[in-house]
Specification:
Number of domains: 2
Number of helices: 11
CATH class of the largest domain: Mainly Alpha
Strand order of the largest sheet: 1-2
Shape: globular
Oligomer: single chain
Helix content: 40-55%
CATH topology of the largest domain: Lysozyme
Largest sheet: 2 strands, antiparallel
Order of helices and strands: HEEHHHHHHHHEHHE
Length: 318
Amino acid sequence: MMLHLQNRKRTFISLGLICIIFLLLLIVGKQFSLPSSCAALPNDSVIDWHRNITALNVPAEEYLFEKKIPLENWEVHERFDREFYYNYSNSDQLLLWYKRLKRWEPMIDSMIDAAGLSRDFKYLIVAESGVRNVLSSARANGFWQFTAPTAQQWGLRIDQYVDDRLDPILSTQAAIRYLLKLKAQFNGDCFLVAAAYNMGESGLQEALDFQKQSGYWNLYVNEETMRYPLRIAVIKEFLEHGQKYGFHFEKMIPYKMHALKVMTLQGPISSISDWSIKEGFTYKDFKIFNPRFIARNIPAGSYEIRLPANDEERTTVR
């Protein structure tokens, strides 16, 4: 009997301790829990992470290459929706695209204007590479994502020492030559030009001939090309009218174009590192401002290179 009473007493004590611990956890949790509202935070200094995506107003009209996209067609509209909501949710990348594009936009716009092309073509490099030198699984490289055969066709050098696809200026010049050729081939239809840039002109021409079509919107081609012009249109919409969707790009500090001095380098150079140090720079300085040189040495020949014009532009941490 005595043993039974002792066991009951221990049980009551254990239950009491559990209740006390539970109450303490509730009190501590309430004290340190996050606020249920962001009302106390200044709206003009924080990003509203609780934007209601269902409240977004998808544009009823959209233009690309100065031409209206037929969003009144349900199939086109659904394709546009897909790109709109996907890229909206990719907000961190949108911010980086904006900052990177601002560095190169003046140069690209001036080249596009001189060629008589629509400035909307600059958004191809956002869709293609995010304005970065990236190598795709298909071995396309650089801002404009040229494959090696296409790059060489349009005058870019690619070998074990040099890859001109990685030079933003040279690759933009080549891309504009290619776009002009596509524009002539497809009778000035810039939607077809964009599609051809994405899938190749021969493949696009074959699809047009087989399906007996003369324009882009009634074509049925691979999924990537079906998405491509609409992706460009959505990127343009967000980067040009971001404030409508909660992207306050005007508060961002874009990446600046660097002040560089252009020099002529005479090869061969057995060590880019040794040459750079001799000239008062670092290997890092040389590689970042001259990404087309992909080896550690440079063969015989004359090359135009760019290096920081002042200490502020150097990559070296002092």
